[in-house]
Amino acid sequence: MPRASVDDNGRFSMDIPPLEKARLVRAAALEHTTLKDFLLRNSLRAADLVIERAERIALSERDTRKVLDLLDNPREPNPHMVAILKDRQAK
């Protein structure tokens, strides 16, 4: 998992080109909020989407049925798996 730099003071500094900053300020004004609140709200929304995509597995209906079937009717362990389990139990 990627590591993020975290400062103790909660401050975040970012250089934004003037034209982009003007767009952000205008958007914040249109939503009757501060630039900070606008950036934080929208950044958190984007962060949640990225985290969700990284942590959630979406299965098709066919694959979901296959997983459920394997949970209800597990296969017999093959010799390789049996050897691995015995080795782990020995440790």
Could you explain how this protein is built, in words?
This protein is an all-alpha fold. The chain has one domain. The chain has four helices and no strands. Helix 1 packs across helix 2. The radius of gyration is 25 Å and the shape is elongated. The mean pLDDT is 91.
Question: Residue-averaged pLDDT, rounded?
Answer: 91
Please bin the fraction of helical residues: 55-70%
By oligomeric state, this entry counts as: single chain
Distance between the termini: 28 Å
Poorly predicted residue ranges:
none
Can you count the helices?
4
Count of folded domains: 1
From the alpha-carbon coordinates, what is the Rg to the nearest angstrom?
25 Å
Number of strands: 0
| Secondary-structure element series | HHHH
Strand content: under 5%
Offer a quick outline of the entry.
The chain is mostly helical and 91 residues long. The protein has helices at 18-30, 35-55, 61-72, 79-90.
Write the layout of secondary structure elements.
Elements: H1 18-30, H2 35-55, H3 61-72, H4 79-90
Helix pairs in contact: 1-2
Pfam family, one: TacA1
InterPro entries: Ribbon_hlx_hlx (IPR010985), TacA_1-like (IPR014795)
Family: Belongs to the TacA antitoxin family.
Features:
91 residues; mainly alpha; 64% helix; 0% strand; elongated; toxin-antitoxin system; Ribbon_hlx_hlx
